[in-house]
Amino acid sequence: MNRDNSVLIVEDELITANSISGLLEEEGFFVVGVVDDSSEAFLFFDGDKEFPKTVLCDINIKGELNGIELAKQLKSKYGCEIIFLTAYADNKTLYDAFGAEPVMYIVKPFTDKQLLSALHMATYRIMKALDDDNGKIEIILTKREREIIELVMQGFTSRQIAAQLFISPQTVKTHRRSMLQRNNMHSFSQLVYQLHK
Questions:
Q1: H-assigned helices in the chain
Q2: Residue ranges of the alpha helices (H) in 27-155?
Q3: Of 15, 104, 115, 133, which is the most buried if we count CB atoms within 10 A?
Q4: What is the model's pLDDT at position 194?
Q5: Are 51 and 3 in contact (CB under 8 A)?
Q6: What is the structure's pLDDT at 187?
Q7: First and final CA of the chain: distance in angstroms?
Q8: Which residue segment(s) compose the domain that 83 sits in?
């Protein structure tokens, strides 16, 4: 299956990495793995298996390469989208990161909204690159589903959406599943892309 929402997390802080992984999985992203070393990251791009489409990468990681050099190589060889998530905010590091052409450069501490917005931007780029230009598909949504998808696109988590709409998080997840099934979509990223095509 082509997973346009697949993410590899390269982060040397285990607590942060696990927290990000949980959030992304809860929000419908497919986390292929979590690593803290540049050489381990390359293992997800070996062989016949489908490689991750987005790499969420810290700059200070273990291994022979730092996060910037790793990201440059992954982008060059595999065309994946890059999002930097780092504590470094100095100009030199920022300018070095430009060479990887990242979707976004997020400085820690970050919010869930910042992270999800960056991932939505990355998956949009991926969907656009994969688009065979068969035209716009009509998307059928209820009024409540439109409210939910607008909040998702603003970077809100399912829990935040539930609180804002005075419904349970499980109800939000049910609406998300229903939107995908009714419109014959395999991921929420695909649905968002089709809505904005």
A1: 14-26, 38-42, 67-78, 91-98, 112-130, 143-153, 158-165, 169-182, 188-195
A2: 38-42, 67-78, 91-98, 112-130, 143-153
A3: 115
A4: 86
A5: no
A6: 84
A7: 22
A8: 6-130
Length of the chain: 197
Total number of domains constituting the chain: 2
How far out from the chain centre does Cα 153 lie? 12
CATH assignment at residue 77: 3.40.50.2300
Give the pLDDT of residue 134: 65
Residue ranges in the chain modelled with pLDDT below 70: 1-2, 133-135
30 in any annotated domain:
yes
What pLDDT is recorded for position 190? 83
**pLDDT for res 129:** 86
State the DSSP code for 57: E
Task: Measure Cα distances from 68 to 22, 41, 65, 83 in Å.
Answer: 24, 13, 8, 10
Do 161 and 93 belong to one domain?
A: no
